[in-house]
Amino acid sequence: MNKKELIKKLVNDDMDFLESEKLVSKVFSLIEEELIKGNNVIVTGFGTFRVFERKERQGLKPKTGEVITIAPRRVVTFKPSPLLKKKMNSLDNSK
């Protein structure tokens, strides 16, 4: 599912496409802002987005085998909550 499909699923009698688009965009913007600040985002019952600092390290260029230095950077990971894991792995996915 992509962002547009998510927005379409939110459309109903109470919320039109533009309102749904604003809501989804606002939620993603808030998550993005917190991650940029270096904060983790915990959505209870869904999962946690975590920011990790990767240190500088040595790597190899695939084509040449040349040793290169990979710069330090921040990365985001997602860990599903135990509840989401349980729902994903249950035989009856209707819960």
Write the layout of secondary structure elements.
Elements: H1 3-10, H2 17-36, E1 41-43, E2 47-54, E3 57-60, E4 67-70, E5 73-80, H3 82-89
Antiparallel strand pairs: 1-2, 2-5, 3-4
Helix pairs in contact: 1-2
List key phrases describing it:
elongated, three-stranded antiparallel sheet, two-stranded antiparallel ribbon, 95 residues, alpha+beta, 2 domains, HU Protein, Chain A
Q: How would a crystallographer describe the biggest sheet? A: 3 strands, antiparallel
| Structural shape | elongated
Q: Please identify the top-level CATH class of the largest domain.
A: Few Secondary Structures
Order of helices and strands: HHEEEEEH
Oligomeric assembly: single chain
If you consult CATH, what is the topology of the largest domain? Answer: HU Protein, Chain A
Kindly report the name of the CATH homologous superfamily of the largest domain.
IHF-like DNA-binding proteins
Give me the side-by-side strand order of the main sheet: 1-2-5
Instruction: List low-pLDDT spans.
Output: none
Helix content: 25-40%
Radius of gyration: 19 Å
Describe this structure in words.
The chain is an alpha+beta fold. 38% of the residues lie in helices and 28% in strands. α1 (3-10) crosses α2 (17-36).
Question: What's this entry about, in short?
Answer:
With 95 residues, the protein is an alpha+beta fold. The chain contains 3 helices and 5 strands, in the order H-H-E-E-E-E-E-H. It is elongated, with a radius of gyration of 19 Å.
